[in-house]
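User: I'm preparing a small set of examples for a lab meeting where we compare how different chains pack in three dimensions. I only have the primary sequence for this one, and I'd like the structure in token form so I can line it up with the others. Please keep the answer compact; I'll paste it straight into my notes.
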Amino acid sequence: MNADKKNCVSTGQKKIKRIFSLFSRYGMLFLLVLVKFVLQYVMVNPEYELHRDEFLYLDQAFHPAAGYISVPPFTSWIAAIIQLLGGGLFWVRFFPALFGTLTVVMVWFLVEELKGGLPAKMLASVLLIFSPFSRLNILFHPNAFDILVWTIIFYTLVKFITSQNNKWLLMSGVICALAINNKYTVFFLIAGLLIGLLLSSQRKILTHRYFYYAAGICLLLILPNIIWQANNNLPVFHHMKALNESQLSHISHAEFLITQPRFLMFGVFPVLAAFWSFIFYKPFRQFRFIGITFLVVLTLFTLCRAKSYYALGLYPVLLAFGSVYAERMIGKGRVVVFSLLGGLSMGAFLFLGPYIMPYHSPKYIAENQEFYNKMGLLDWEDGSQRQLPQDFANMTGWKELAAKTREAYNQIPDKEKQSTLLFCDNYGLAGAINYYNRDKVPEAYSLSTDYIFWIPHYPVILNIIWIGPEPDSTTLNLFRSVHLKGKIENKYADEYGTRIYLLSQPKTDVTPVFYKMIEEKKKAMDIF
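Assistant: Understood. Below is the structure token output for the 528-residue chain.
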């Protein structure tokens, strides 16, 4: 009996010691995770709503498919989880915050794998948290997860090199598949990695049989999306063409490169240290392929006039390597130097964060343009300059739109409501109406992006609630009654002035006319 008691006490003591050991090892990481999560919420002014793109991705949860015109299917999987959790604002913002936090965790583990100490872990994490990276972690877009999976891909390769355990190569194949199912820009990373491995001492990985097992796993996991793209005449190319014409053509090669250091702020020093270590620090020479990958991917993005944030997934791994190298080179003075660098980064973010994040109200920004202008935050992707940063303007006016659309719909006689179509000029309008009015009005549709696939077949269309600019004369001539029911009056909204029309009393059967227009649009997009 006494022996059993001693064993129980001994087991309990071991568990307590294990808990204390984990806390001492990861307690600071837990604190940083908490700071990261809180930061993502407190830096968003409650006056802002969801972003126009978020409405589209949330709508995808109600239209499950192996692919979409706008993005691969991963975002729709997360959207489905958000809907299961209630679909509220908290959960919409939870997942990008989670992905940003997990990126910090992966950087911590990467530093740990490189035998870095607590100062290096803290430096890399702080530089990542208190940086413009945080701006991407407030929006439910593919970008937050994109940065995370790029970081994990680098981590799996580092783990394979240091352990020679084949499971890490297989894991890299799984992560690559997730990355491709999230955003196609990861193909730039894959191309860079293949070239980086080929031009470095790690080219032997390309002859490893488990490398091809990993490639096979990746291909198998992305096969549904490949089949979907093939069955729909590769709409990804139509989307890329439209993106290039509307946005990327306005970005210069130099602009892409010039904006890169802005995302890093004081993190530029560890990044430069990482490159130095790949060349001159013997223990890190085996990882030179990472530096080569960076240069290749940056070159490809520059040539393609990519958006500046496309390259952000390259930096977390460099912050980890640079921090570990600096820790070893500086020696005893590392705590002072790292504290100074981390403090400067935090100070700079506390000063700049309220400007690069939607912290200030739209009214405040409109009345204090000078600093925003100097930072280039008022330059939009179409080459114009407005009173609010583009993302912020895309986060206002939606509730007003939904309420006025609902009011217009409720004026329609009950017997005609099932024959009423809500049709919008663009996906942002349709998505916002669906998000705020779900189960209150019929689903809204548009001819833009994925909505063109989702338009159901109405047996008869008696009324159209048209949301957008004034309909063309051809459309107006189909109806006897055309009434303006309202418009977005929020002067800070990107959709300021967008109108809501009720088209009723058709002169002829508008149903075949409407569906003919849809088919013509699909043909123009080469989508069947």
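A couple of notes for your slides: The mean pLDDT is 90. The two ends are 77 Å apart (CA to CA).

User: Perfect, thanks.
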